[in-house]
Amino acid sequence: MKLKLSLFTLLAVFCISSISAQTKIIKTDAEWKKILSPAEYHILREKGTEYAFSGKYDHFYEKGTYYCAGCNTPLFTSKSKFNSGSGWPSFDSHIGNNVGFHEDNKYGMKRTELTCNTCDGHLGHIFMDGPKKTTGKRYCINSLALKFKKSQ
């Protein structure tokens, strides 16, 4: 009886985790190049960085939601956005499990890269110099990795 219960429990956990897991979007480079602009492709697929103070969302504060420019996954809300003065849109938190965290040791620095958990698109990096009154985190994001939808 214990064996049957254990197998049932494992099956139930597997089914629940499968239902709640995000469906990955996988495309070839050619497919990504068809749907993204060259600048978006450079940021999202080649892990590029736009110049500081050049992005359209750096000093943008309308109410709404920021989505991944590659796959439309909701990533950040305007409620979590703040002016960091860094030259990139900054947020102190993300939506659900939609953002992935990965160790990045390029260029002699130890950082944490942020990606979209649905399409693995590069978003930016996270730093621990954000607002102390909230999370203390600064999600430093490339504007070209985002699409904004205004709240109704």
From TrEMBL:
EC number: 1.8.4.12
Entries under PROSITE patterns matching the protein: MSRB
Domain of life: Bacteria
Keywords on record: Oxidoreductase, Signal
Any single Gene Ontology cellular-component annotation: cytoplasm
Catalytic activity, reaction form: L-methionyl-[protein] + [thioredoxin]-disulfide + H2O = L-methionyl-(R)-S-oxide-[protein] + [thioredoxin]-dithiol
Protein name per Swiss-Prot or TrEMBL: peptide-methionine (R)-S-oxide reductase
